[in-house]
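Folding Task

Wanted — backbone structure
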Amino acid sequence: MQSHSTLTTYTYKAIRSILGPIIRTIWVKSHTNIHHIKTHKKAAIVAANHQSFFDFLCLVSVSGRNIHFLSAEKFFKRGLWKPLMVGTGQIKVERNATDKSVVHSRVKTHILKNDLVGIFPEGTRAPSETEMLKAYTGVARYALEHNVPVIPVGIKGTHAIHNRESKKMLFKKNVEIVVGEPMIFSYPEGSSTNPEILEAVTRTIMDEIAHLSGKVYPH
């Protein structure tokens, strides 16, 4: 039986060779500075704004590296999403659970393996095409706790393709992905549990994502 990591490797290869060209041809208009992800050989947190299910698919189709996203438990129960989530090694988050120790452990495991961990700090798809939701501080916590950089990503155009208010899907080359330079935060040990520092770092990250995505972070 294949190990989970081997399954992940082959699943990602299949996505890039089969689904990747389809997604890029139909939906991805452009991607800028993707080398910040492709050539980053060590662990990092990839943090992006969230508008649509297509955020994950479009980013993965151009990333060049496997990204293990924190994903809501519902995706591990839905038809075609379940094998995709399991096969690509996404990290299941039980959103209503008070104990997130399993999630934290899996994030740590990936970071120790020099993997990329993906987070949508808003936690869910923003209903607005122009404004972002208030972010959770998890991205800041992991960056500070494990001393890894955050690679900010701005995604434009996926809201028009498919969003939480509409079941319709637009077949239009509309998506733009802009990747920023890795952000490195230097704080004293123990800062990952300081609420004020976590909020400040989160705001810095979200301001950069807002800049890259052309959106507003009003929080």
